[in-house]
Design goal:
alpha/beta, 4 helices, 8 strands, 22% helix
């Protein structure tokens, strides 16, 4: 199974949702992948990076391991560089019992078995690429900010589940 979690932009709760799903379904033996459209550190040659997370820590991929993922990876690929890491992602997918990917951009490349989008009306505008992929989402997780949050403008034909704001989640175990 390939489950993809995207969102309208940064800091809307994608990592929180991925870790909650990993914790809720421990028998899935998840291989978790964070795909970042920007680099977190200088890389030799400036190209995309695929790196396996070795230990649980405060990074997003480290949080996946702390939540119970069997393996976790960080893929850093700016702009069109995602195409360059597709062979590596294919190898990761081929060795995984179940794959959960945090990425808004991957849905443009593959059709996961389930594609969830996290939407937080208080987070502001959507990234244009995320808005373009909203129709491809199977369901939305709407961060509950109360009735004053406003209408997020989601397609009415898609299921929408309530979610908690990332800062309101209990500490991870």
């Amino acid at each position: 199974m390939i489950l993809c979690v995207g969102g309208q932009g940064r800091k809307v709760g994608k990592t929180s949702l991925v870790t909650a799903l990993i914790r809720a379904l421990p028998g899935a033996a998840w291989t978790a992948v964070k795909i970042s459209p920007h680099t977190h550190a200088a890389t030799p040659g400036g190209g995309p990076v695929v790196r396996e997370q070795a230990r649980a820590d405060s990074t997003d991929s480290g949080r996946f391991l702390a939540a119970g993922a069997a393996r976790a990876y960080l893929i850093e690929a700016e702009g069109d560089a995602l195409s360059q890491v597709m062979p590596a992602l294919g190898a990761i997918c081929g060795s995984a019992e179940n794959l959960i990917v945090e990425s808004s951009s991957l849905a443009a490349w593959i059709r996961p078995d389930l594609y969830l989008m996290v939407v937080d009306p208080a987070a502001g505008d959507w990234k244009p690429a995320a808005r373009a992929r909203a129709e491809a989402a199977d369901a939305f997780v709407l961060v509950d900010r109360g009735p004053a949050a406003g209408d997020p403008g989601l397609p009415p034909s898609k299921p929408c589940f309530p979610g908690r704001a990332p800062g309101s989640l209990s500490p991870e175990r």
